[in-house]
From TrEMBL:
It comes from Rheum acuminatum. This is ATP synthase subunit b, chloroplastic. It is a single-pass membrane protein. The chain crosses the membrane at residues 32-49. Pfam families: ATP-synt_B. Its main location: membrane. The keyword Kinase does not apply.
Length: 184
């Protein structure tokens, strides 16, 4: 170690200014070179390194801020989306419940209208049957009346002679005359 410190202090060890050469003593030259390089780097590189570190620090801080802002916005959007989802789920439940009740109501209305229609058709059927029965009864009555009238006319025509016919007419005229006197 004495040689290293002597090389700094002892001027005879330094080469003269008139000669140029390489110093092969590694222990003597490396600490001097290193100290010069480190000194130059510290003196000139201190500002550059400080600026680089400050810029890097600012970029990191800005990135963190931006990330926090993005995270906050994402959390807000997530909360809004969850609120919308809850609202949509509630509306879907309402629609489902209303839909089921509306379907049941429509089903009951359809059943009721079908029963009413069936009742009306049954009434129309009964009215049609009754009408057709009355028409058939009337037709039968007319035929029976026509046949009875024809039979009576046939019997009267065959049984009545002119004399009997005149007596019947006179008797009827007498009855009408008596009725006329009573009403007068």
């Amino acid at each position: 170690m004495k040689n290293v410190t002597d090389s700094f202090v002892y001027p005879g060890h330094w080469p003269s200014a008139g000669s140029f050469g390489f110093n092969t003593d590694i222990l003597a030259t490396n600490p001097i070179n290193l100290s010069v390089v480190i000194g130059v780097l510290i003196f000139f590189g201190k500002g550059v390194l400080s600026d680089l570190l400050d810029n890097r620090k600012l970029r990191i801080v800005n990135t963190i801020r931006n990330s926090e802002e993005l995270r906050e916005r994402a959390v807000e959007q997530l909360e809004k989306a969850r609120a919308r989802l809850r609202k949509v789920e509630m509306e879907a439940d309402q629609f489902r419940a209303n839909g089921y009740s509306e379907i049941e109501r429509d089903k009951l209305n359809l059943i009721n209208s079908t029963y009413k229609t069936l009742e009306q058709l049954e009434n129309y059927k009964n009215e049609t049957i009754h009408f057709e029965q009355q028409r058939a009864i009337n037709q039968v009555r007319q035929r029976v009346f026509q046949q009875a009238l024809q039979g009576a006319l046939g019997t009267l025509n065959s049984c009545l002679s002119n004399e009997l016919h005149l007596r019947t007419i006179n008797a009827n005229i007498g009855m009408f005359g008596a009725m006329k006197e009573i009403t007068d």
